[in-house]
Design goal:
With 197 residues, this protein is α+β, with helices and mostly antiparallel strands. It has helices at residues 14-28, 34-41, 46-58, 132-146, 161-169, and strands at 3-8, 66-75, 92-104, 115-123, 151-157, 173-182, 186-195.
Length: 197
């Protein structure tokens, strides 16, 4: 079993964060029309997302903008010590397997001094169902409480039922705000909120 945890993202994580986002989007957003999904998560978008993640990690707009990563610390050959090597001496490496980002809320009906927005919560598709999403969500809420926020919102595609179910199981609920995106067909997003005060 690999050691796991959550920490602040560092410059060295930029490539791993970008890769995790793109892999997670291609898997989780398969319900989106093909062309917009390819524009969001295709190879042509990689450089753009990499620049944006580097800026978010290295030079965030405020101290209240944060990027967190979920990590697994495992052995080099798929989390198992090499045959005959004592576990304490086996080469270990840290792997980014998820990410979360948050910032002051920007929706005009919310006070950015009281409400934050969970901008991103993604886990690599090969590392789901291991608790990384819950650890990222809990760490995010801990930071937001320290910053004095009373509530958090996030926008979720209505068709992304696994994410909706996950957040609702953690105490989030739709707050009646919605967006309709034109992605070759109308795609509805709903806003979920939770009280952390």
């Amino acid at each position: 079993m690999a050691d796991v945890g959550v920490r602040a993202a560092l410059r060295r994580d930029v490539d791993a964060v970008t890769d995790t986002q793109m892999r997670a989007w291609r898997c989780a957003y398969a319900f989106l029309p093909k062309e917009p999904l390819n524009q969001m998560a295709g190879e042509a978008a990689r450089a753009l997302w990499r620049r944006q993640w580097e800026e978010a990690i290295v030079a965030p707009p405020t101290p209240r903008h944060r990027v967190l990563v979920a990590v697994e610390l495992g052995f080099d050959d798929d989390d198992d010590a090499p045959d005959g090597a004592p576990a304490a001496r086996a080469a270990r490496r840290e792997r980014v397997v998820g990410l979360a980002s948050h910032a002051p809320a920007e929706d005009p009906d919310l006070d950015p001094g009281k409400y934050a927005e969970l901008l991103t919560l993604l886990v690599d598709p090969d590392h789901t169902r291991r608790g990384h999403g819950s650890r990222l969500l809990n760490a995010t809420v801990d930071h937001l409480r320290e910053d004095g926020y009373a509530g958090v919102v996030t926008w979720v595609f209505e068709e992304h039922t696994p994410m909706l179910a996950f957040l609702e199981s953690a105490g989030w609920a739709p707050d009646e705000a919605e967006r309709i995106l034109d992605m070759g067909r109308p795609v509805r997003m709903i806003r979920l909120a939770t009280d952390i005060g």
